[in-house]
Amino acid sequence: MPNISLAAREMKLKAITLILLFYILPPSAIALGLIPYEYRFPLLIGITPIMLLIRPTKHTTITDLGITSCKLRQSILSIIPLTVILTLPLLITFFVTTTPRIDNSSLPLIFYIFYALISCPFQEFAYRGYLFCLMAMLNLGKWSTIFIAAILYSYVHIIYLDIPTLLFTLLAGFLWNIHYDKFRNIASVTLSHIVLGTATILLGLI
Question: Where would I find the H helices in the chain?
């Protein structure tokens, strides 16, 4: 077994610790009822600034975190077909069943504004930009990173205690990860997330 430098070990330990603190413990605590369900959004809003303060490494830049205009046009054009492919089955399911799986009719307009302008961008920063940097600290390969990041993205939805939601977010996370791995820009996946997420909520599928 090759020797691993102390610095490399510390980096891996930091990555594992941050994954545990940011991606495992919060949704687990909500799912178990240790943190009230209604605190899920304040928790998300609170964790994201902490991520900005605790960079994966001292050399991590904003660009490394996916906040960049680089390849913006190409990434947006590329995400459109993927978004359509993911949305069409949802529309077909809704019109075939005619009855929404979950009644979201009482959600106010302010919820959708918050979801589009705050929740989706924060989620994409956390689960694409920041998480991919942590995966790099663990020296994981491309597909290992894509799979593990998709599992962690799906896992945050365990708070809904709903198997179809977990499976759908696992698929969406996997496809978004492939896209992000290519373009390294969270803007395009954020737009896709807004469209797809809003559709699933409006149609009562999640």
Answer: 6-19, 25-31, 40-53, 72-97, 109-114, 120-124, 131-137, 142-155, 163-183, 186-202
Element (H, E) at 63: none
Q: What is the pTM of this model?
A: 0.92
Rounded CA separation 190/173 (Å): 12
Q: Which pair of tokens denotes residue 99?
A: 């009855």
**Per-residue pLDDT reduced to its tens digit, 51-109:** 989 999 989 999 999 999 999 999 999 999 999 999 988 888 878 877 777 888 899 99
The backbone torsions φ and ψ at residue 65, rounded to the nearest 5 degrees and listed phi first, read: -85, 5
Half-sphere exposure of 65 (CA within 13 A, CB side): 21
| Structure letter (DSSP) for residue 35 | S
CA pair distance 188, 62, nearest whole angstrom: 16
User: CA nearest 122: which of 42, 36, 179?
Assistant: 42
Q: How far apart are CA 48 and CA 123, in angstroms?
A: 8
Q: Count Cα neighbours of 39 within 13 Å in the Cβ-side half-sphere.
A: 12
Three-state secondary-structure class, residue 198:
helix
